[in-house]
């Protein structure tokens, strides 16, 4: 599974990094804090999952198939980079061990756009 590590946690900069990965406009997002042992299933339109780990804590996120709980991969905190960008696949879920924040980024359609 592809994981892009970065030191930035700015939503604007992270959305731009997602746009660079796919060459399309990406949505802005807000960070959502997950509690220890909290499970979360991102929206089916999510193209990138952003994971932010606080500098002072150790944390890990396990990613698994939602339908059968089959383990896919994990993402852990890293002292050199605090945010990880993960291309997301619908039908997956995650579970946070420790303290972490996530953001969900979608592709913006150019059709009917007024901006």
Explained architecture:
With 115 residues, this protein is mainly β. The chain has one domain: Jelly Rolls. 10% of the residues lie in helices and 39% in strands. It has a 5-stranded antiparallel β-sheet, covered by helices on one side. A 4-stranded antiparallel β-sheet has the order 3-8-5-6, with no helix packed on it. A hairpin with a 5-residue loop joins strand 5 (60-65) and strand 6. The longest helix is centred in the first third of the chain and has 12 residues, at 11-22.
Produce the secondary structure layout:
Layout: E1 4-6, H1 11-22, E2 32-34, E3 39-40, E4 46-52, E5 60-65, E6 71-76, E7 83-87, E8 92-97, E9 100-106
Antiparallel strand pairs: 1-7, 2-9, 3-8, 4-7, 4-9, 5-6, 5-8
At the first level of CATH, what is the class?
A: Mainly Beta
Query: What is the topology, as strand order, of the major beta sheet?
Result: 1-7-4-9-2
Over all CA atoms, what is the radius of gyration?
14 Å
The CATH topology:
Jelly Rolls
Entry summary:
With 115 residues, the chain is mainly beta. The chain is built from one helix and nine strands; from the N terminus they run βαββββββββ.
């Amino acid at each position: 599974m592809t994981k892009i590590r970065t030191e930035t946690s700015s939503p604007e900069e992270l959305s731009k990094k997602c746009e660079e990965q796919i060459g399309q406009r990406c949505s802005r997002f807000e960070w959502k804090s997950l509690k220890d042992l909290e499970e979360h299933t991102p929206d089916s339109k999510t193209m990138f999952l952003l994971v932010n780990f606080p500098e002072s804590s150790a944390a890990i996120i396990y990613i698994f198939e939602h339908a059968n709980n089959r383990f896919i991969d994990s993402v852990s905190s890293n002292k050199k980079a605090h945010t990880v960008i993960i291309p997301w696949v619908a039908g997956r879920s995650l579970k946070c061990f420790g303290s972490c924040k996530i953001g969900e980024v979608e592709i913006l359609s150019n059709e009917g756009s007024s901006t």
